[in-house]
Protein 1
Amino acid sequence: MLSSLLIANRGEIARRIIRTARALGIRTIAVHSDVDAAMPFVREADEAVCIGTALARDSYLRQDRILEAAIATGAEAIHPGYGFLSENAEFAEAVQAAGLVWVGAPPASIRAMGLKDAAKERMIAAGVPVTPGYLGADQSPARLQSEADAIGYPVLIKAVAGGGGKGMRKVDEAHAFAESLESCRREAASSFGDDRVLIEKYILSPRHIEVQIFGDTHGNAVHLFERDCSLQRRHQKVIEEAPAPGMDVATREAICAAAVKAAKAVDYIGAGTIEFIADASEGLRADRIWFMEMNTRLQVEHPVTEAITGQDLVEWQLRVASGEPLPKRQDELSITGWAMEARLYAENPVSGFLPSTGPLERLRFPPGVRIDSGVDEGGEVTPFYDPMIAKLIVHAPTRAAAAGKLGDAAGGTEVWPVKTNAAFLARAARHPDFVAARIDTGFIERHIDALAPPPEPSASVLTSAVGAILPPASHDPWTGLTGFRANAAPDLRAEVTVGGQVHLVTLATPVPTSIAALDGGSVLFADGEAWPFSRPRADDIVRGDALSDGMIVAPMPGRIISVAVSPGDPVTKGQRLLVLEAMKMEQGLVAPFDGIVAEIRAVDSAQVSEGALLVRIEKDA
Ligand code: ADP
Ligand code: ADP
Ligand code: MG
């Protein structure tokens, strides 16, 4: 086994790797940018080296500095994580040339799979079914257009060097092709420095199915079953699960065998993922699943595979890199239960998912969920890197149970003041179509209205806010507050300011919430949303209001502290009439509308029982 490991990455994946390395007794070395100096992964590593300033190209992509740090700290190996340099063949070679162990794919495999066109050619040669399309030997717009016409619309234009969902354009009709090609090329040139594209048939009812594979230096290759990553927004994964819903044994065997074949075709070593696109219009069928690309690294969503197989994939990577054979044979691997992962992003669904940065004054997750996170409460989301805050991973015996757990995990997540997609994730996990596994890559777009956040807090959220404001009246505050007037419909209402807006609330059943004092006010967390609210002074609480008959009654047993009005006084809505002390708290009772004081029964210092008439107000004539 390796004795020391430098992690050329940051955030949650750096932490994830440190966790396993430590368990295996490996000394860990973090490298980081100056703005990341206080991040948990830097603290948790045995050693840390600052390699530059915030921008990735000045730090996490600085191959020279990473190698210098490895040599200076006596690191034996380098793990690149995902993103950054993980699929950079030159870096892999430089690491090996420096006499260090590269905990990643062999440079030749990375090269073979690095460009989508070359990878597809390789796969065709190996007999792996690939997405029908044109690989782009001739890049002239006229030729590309005529190939697209021949394939038949819709088609997908893809940058051969693309990744991370970038450099892709779906084209629905021939006349729109030229313009999409141009914009795709522009994006490809600026993002990947390579404007070449290929054309693929756009698969209808598309589902993203991928297979985790592993190879070792002894010529073994196995798969660890499939994942379904169909829940995507703009071609980027949002919720992943394993296994894939609706995958029967024969189809699984066929696709997993194709994945192992693909891996062997490039002499693969280490962790890799073969991504397929499936036409699921008639369920998952082996003859309608095609190779899309290979990711020659550990994948963001690897934890769902860990959950269903009980294996630690980072441990597998480190063992393979040490020259050990794969920890398990194919026939020793099996699937237990169902796992799901949701990516919690620092982004604002209300503003079109723009990234949201800033301090994490609150960052809490419910228990019973695996949280792979790069930040802790008190940390910060900076604008320099991926806005992912955490991955929420659940595992349950059945898919329905896993979906329920994921909904609860996202719904119970509390983040403030950074905006997140937590509520969006909760709604997605609880959506009836998701629960029924009616999913494809268009799911989020199709259901965006149902998944988008509500502009207003729900009645039950408001009730919870009111519940936090009102003093407890009895064992259950609600029984003390509703139905306070015999034989009358409960008409207890309150004004409460939530999210900067004043709401008149009719009390409903409160939702499970958590309330925290933050930002000098209060924030109520419910179903993944965070609602800032203000605690009004007690005398802002209005009873009866517009529906009121003007009878001001004691909402709970108490003692009259003071009476501020006399019979015949004109009063205005909201004006304080008297103060009641109950449960050691003072509560002002105010006029429900403009009028005059018709009657006063309340007597200073007197004890009153619940429902006792205290003051009667009559409307102005
Ligand atoms: P996955 O299938 O694991 O989600 P992605 O291709 O979406 O893989 O990317 C994995 C990680 O690598 C993400 O954090 C993404 O932001 C990053 N990434 C992907 N492509 C690039 C790229 N070309 N440049 C920089 N980061 C990238
Ligand atoms: P990237 O390198 O950016 O991950 P991929 O080739 O893996 O690019 O495609 C990303 C996503 O785009 C897929 O997960 C899928 O949702 C969609 N996609 C890709 N190819 C097709 C296709 N031929 N038909 C329909 N959807 C596709
Ligand atoms: Mg992909």
Note: Residues 275, 293 surround magnesium ion (ligand 3) (CB under 6 Å).
Protein 2
Amino acid sequence: MKGTMNKTGYPVPDNVFAETVRDVKHYTDRLFKFRITRPASFRFRAGEFVMIGLPNAEKPVYRAYSIASPTWDEELEFFSIKVPGGPLTEHLQRIKAGDTILMRKKSTGTLVLDALLPGKRLYLLSTGTGVAPFASLIRDPETYEKFAEVVLVQTTRDVAELGYARELVDTLREDPLIGEFAAQLEFYPMTTREQSEHMGRITEAMQSGQFFETTGLPPVNPRDDRVMICGSMAMLKDCAAMCEAFGLEEGANNAPATYVVERAFVD
Ligand code: A2P
């Protein structure tokens, strides 16, 4: 095979970067984040994903991972679930600083500002690790230049699973580069299986009108609102149907419209 060898002895193909893990943080027994070195030549748009693997086999297993760090960050950050027995995450959850991560060189995705028409308010609807692409977008000044209001919604099973996003939103306010935009961001954390301030699924809360009563925001409408959706397959389907019912239309890179959907599945 064409390519360079890495320290594990397997060759790294020319379309793959071999990067070094800088930092790992576990939030719960199901969720962790990791940061890796960023290749000098690597460019991406906020909201895109890349294929990630480990150099533990001649033919490594690759999975799509949304890049959670902003485009200006010197490192790359990812937020991952740990799936017991999952072909990648079973091993990935054990990585530590200094280990090697493989990353295919091309990033792509539809959860990008280019796929949306201009609007007033941007909703970022997520469940679990679906918040990862939005972790990049809420740290990108362009998001706030394009939208006066950004509403980040994350629904998780319990409060501990909201920890990663909570930490991001809290530190954003003190960030010298992005802190000035913090007033434009609203975080609406929800849980379904543990008591918290906002309970239930986002679909239920928006469809019943309860979300709009609580926040004081007007119901989602195609004139003002744009929506990005990221979560499990069932969540994407239900949220897309809800957006259609609100009168929004699905957009793509070559045909921007009023909402976009993406799956960031890992197993
Ligand atoms: P629930 O507890 O009612 O299943 P998971 O960790 O399984 O990926 O789920 C993350 C969160 O997404 C949970 O709070 C879960 O609620 C919620 N969820 C699951 N399916 C949907 C869906 N179809 N629409 C909206 N939220 C969902």
Note: The domain at 3-104 is CATH 2.40.30.10 (Elongation Factor Tu (Ef-tu); domain 3).
Protein 3
Amino acid sequence: MIKVAAVSGKMRLAAYLALFVASVAMQGGLSSASPYTGVVAQFQVVISVLITLLCSFWGFVVSFAANACLFVFLITRYFMLGDQNVLPGVVICASTVLVTAIIGKYKKVVGTQKDAILDGRLSLERKCAEAQAAEERAAFLATHDEATGLANERNLRNRLAGYVSGQALETGPCGVLLVKVENMRHISLVLGSRFAVAVLQALSKRIEPLLGQDVCLLSLFRHDTFAMLFADAVAMHKMSSDILGVLQANVVIKDVNVKVGVHAGAVVDDGRTGNAEQIMQCAELALLYAVRTRCAEVVVYDESVARAEKRRVEIIAALDGALANNEFSLVYQPQVDVLTGAIKGAEALLRWNSRNLGSVSPGEFIPLAEETQHIATVGRWILDQACKDASQWPEQWTVSVNISTVQLLNDDFKSHISGALSRANLDPQRLKLEITESIMIDDMEFVNSLLSDVKKLMVRVVLDDFGSGFSSLSYIKNIHLDELKIDKTFTQSVSGDKRSQGVLKAIVRLADELGLTITAEGVETQCQAELLANLGFHRLQGFLYGRPMHTVELLKLVVQ
Ligand code: C2E
Ligand code: CA
Ligand code: CA
């Protein structure tokens, strides 16, 4: 319809222009060739009036302009060449301009009736075309993502709802696979939203060829997640690893190379999961679990996923107010000298006895306390309490406190330490801070200046769980450390495993070269203790020497 209106408009304009040229040619030719006669004058007036009347607004413009131009031409001729013949033409042109002007004004009532019908029809056609296009677009946007053109979440949910209600006993279980593209927000912020859309489009093009007839719909979910609805869950299982595989490769757009990570969650609906809403919820929970645990494979929803996520929510809720309710306590695990077996200090380990959840293990709640920043306030309490308890111990004993990266990066960390030391009146040299290798993934220069600042307080810094995570050894020589503490997995593999002993031997040498004390934790047997002593470890810690205990219990060990 837009096309029709456009063609009609063009034809009308062409007609006006043709009349204009004809008018100028006729009127100009006649008037300059010979003096004006009554016929010529009448011809000029008639054609001008006709154009004005028939062709509406543009007719009026053409007619008016033609007569005005002719008037200028003739008057110039009169003044420049003294051509007396043009004088009647000048008068006729002037009066025709006047007549067309009057008609033009009057025509608003008469002439526009036809035009109004034509214009009205055209504008109606245009409006209809626009309305239809808008309607089509709205219908498309209701079911598709505007930027990528992929089916949207609503479309997916509707399709799933229809599928679930219609599936009954006809086919086997269906499946929903969600594949989240990590760092899309980052890509969008750094390289622009258009680039991010292009990345998603490029990735969807990789998925499409893999999807056979088994897939009902490929859609975009929450801006960064591909959602696929499979009619056949078996096909989903088969295809999902291929889908993850094709998404691993970097995306190159206009010479810009980006790395995208993916995580995937899926649900299989055997008709018992519930309605479409509940199926999607399960798929999302599985995806959440995959993202959180950084699982490289597809996590398929089951009861254990649901339980883990529920527990997580409960722990996060229970952490609020736990400190105020005195639900935390500290226990201490002794560390002994490898040669004499005498206690040289103890490591403070946090315990949480929640009012609602009962006893929760640190392995479970500390990562959540870090995630929710609760560790900042709890960490301050730990430092205070550990220093206070240690101030009651024999003077040669040290106290080791585990420090989360979140705490260490806190601006007030140094003042927390000095505050805790001065409140407990504890010698700074008796405090050891246990940090983990995870801190090393941050800006090394920054971490180093932070640690050298902390060390100005005269406290000691221990690298905990050494060898368990980040592999680069280069940082060891640069950062300000006093002690290495090897992970208990090393300790526990030392007996009977020659290769592990070889690695430990190398670590001990490294520590010696760098002048660091070296401690082994997780010592459970006499055999392990002897092997570690022979390898050159300085201190040992583990169930062999004592389980984590309250400070009162620990003090009893002094007497023995
Ligand atoms: P970690 O710092 O490596 O602590 C040593 C863990 O090994 C403790 O577990 C301890 O009970 C356990 N352990 C000690 N000796 C043995 C042994 O001979 N055999 C075995 N199998 N295990 C042994 P726990 O208390 O459950 O703490 C787990 C982790 O939670 C700690 O690992 C530490 O990363 C974190 N954590 C504990 N307390 C705190 C704290 O106050 N602050 C922070 N930020 N993290 C803490
Ligand atoms: Ca530790
Ligand atoms: Ca450790």
Note: The two ends are 100 Å apart (CA to CA).
